[in-house]
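Appendix B, example 12.
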Amino acid sequence: MAQQSEELQELIAQLSLLESGTYQREQQNELTGTPIFTKPVLAYATQTTQLQSFSQYGLLAGDADLLDEMARQDRDLSELPVDRDPRVFFNISAPSSAFICGSQGSGKSHTLSCLLENCLLKSDADQMNKLKSPLAGLVFHYDPFISDLKGTPCEAAHLCSSEKISRTYSNMKSVTVEPLMINESHLNTKRMLDLMAVSQEERMPLYLHEITRILRGMRVVQQLIGGSFKYATFKKEVDRSPMTDAQKAPLTQRLDTLESFMPKSQTTIGATEKAVGGNDWSIKYMNAGSEASTLTSNLLSSIRLQRHLGTRVFISTQEPSISPKLLDLCSITVVHRFTSPDWLSCLRLHLAALKDDNGMKAVFSQIIRLRVGEALLFAPSAVVGVKSEAGEAGVARIELKKLGTEYMQVKIRNRVTHDGGKSVMAIGS
């Protein structure tokens, strides 16, 4: 009997470790981590006392089919059933990543800007979003050089609707142009090597091995006595090193480039716990070249660790083939209009909703017919509906419907800030 009692206690203890939690807790975890949800899901989370509703979210788009249905029926909005509400929201609180692709003029930058608006700007009376704590943002945007006197403003700068560069932004009162400078306290061994364009995959010259030795030695001392990286100390160690003048010549060129981005007086910028990063026209600088490999690698690392770092990464590009790994890792994929069958073939390799050979012609036809601002939304973990199913003893059980291996056609909302990415026409409209 004593042995049976011990076995029973062991069984109970070990089974408790296998329990996934209560039904409400499982639903709460699904809702908390979803990047995309719809109005019926929001209403269910708000009305259910056992669940915590979404704390920060923003309107991203509307279900295209439901919007067309509303337009045909001309229904009174006060009588709109919640299950026919077309609104699609972006969950700002949950770390996530979005990959946006499509042809020129299809609405890629517009979608990126709407995501940034949701994360960075508070709206009046929660019209656009519900945002208690705006995120910090870093936007990479490529614009070709035109001239010293005139240029094209970064489209992302319209979210805020060198002296020569400042002239380009002079008509935008909310934008302040400041030089990009590196704070020495933010430097470490890896960042120093990255800034000096040291590739770990290629054979390093002897003087870079000496630099690596100096940096590692400084790191050991820093761990023993505390403090941060001191560039002046690094320069002194370089001067004391046994490198020849011939070895120091190429090193000096690398350090001169690094020092051009360092202010004479250091200024510390406060860190933030949550951040959003946006990449527009990624194809311009996230190509297969060696100069872009570091940026692409760091973006992939940020996406892999997004839950631990509290980041949201948005990438907008024409070609989905720019970095196939991004498609594998991103939690949201927004596909605007394009006409290239090769692009569809690339998407099929990385999106579960396009794995089935049947119906690919219809999907491609649907993509080609998309209007400006319309897109196909792929997000397997998105919660897009609520359905009631009969449970045990006839008790109704509410199940959350995920998008899974399906996709939905959406219409991206209008922007609340000035649109700086409109197509430039020969005759202004």
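The longest helix spans residues 206-225. DSSP finds 15 helices and 13 strands in the chain.
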